[in-house]
From TrEMBL:
Keyword Transmembrane part of the UniProt annotation: yes
Subcellular location: Cell membrane
MF term (GO), any: hydrolase activity
Pfam families: PAP2
Mode of membrane association: Multi-pass membrane protein
Residue stretches making up the Phosphatidic acid phosphatase type 2/haloperoxidase domain: 28-137
Name of the protein in its database record: Undecaprenyl-diphosphatase
Matching Gene3D superfamilies: Phosphatidic acid phosphatase type 2/haloperoxidase
Length: 160
């Protein structure tokens, strides 16, 4: 079970490596995608304070150490970060996006297996993270289209 606990945090490292690699190609877009992950985390912290659901490890033993009281269960922060990262990476690079999606699902599942979250915590976390990150990606795409619409267009006749 300890490999699952370590693996959950290692997946977050995989996302950091993917963002670093994508940084060299996309610079500003990769930075803003990462900012979307931070925004998703902030939103999840607000939701946690509103919902205040106890963790399953408070009522039954779990293989992982149970976080301190007041560190609420819903939504799972690991899942929010995983969902937001996977969506952001997907928006930047489809191949990396598939890898990130599998990693996000694995990270979310491991939080349930080690007993620190309920299934609905991780599903809500994945959805919340992906939704916030998708919103940032949609804004970036809209901004990118607008920038191209303002650019002068040159039409060349076809050579025969």
């Amino acid at each position: 079970m300890t490999w699952l606990v370590i693996g959950t945090d290692a997946v977050l490292g995989v996302f950091a490596v993917m963002f670093s690699v994508l940084w060299f190609r996309f610079r500003l877009r990769a930075f803003l995608a990462g900012a979307g992950v931070v925004l998703a985390y902030a939103v999840s912290e607000v939701v946690k304070l509103l919902v205040r659901e106890d963790r399953p490890c408070r009522s039954k033993p779990s293989p992982a150490p149970c976080p301190e009281p007041g560190d609420w269960s819903f939504p799972s922060n690991h899942s929010v970060i995983a969902g937001a990262s996977a969506m952001a990476i997907w928006a930047l690079h489809r191949t990396f996006g598939w890898v990130a999606a599998v990693c996000a699902l694995a990270a979310a599942a491991s939080r349930v297996v080690v007993g620190v979250h309920y299934v609905h915590d991780v599903l809500a976390g994945l959805a919340l993270g992906a939704l916030v990150s998708w919103g940032i990606a949609a804004l970036l795409a809209k901004r990118g289209r607008r920038a191209h619409d303002d650019a002068p267009t040159v039409v060349l006749s076809r050579l025969r």
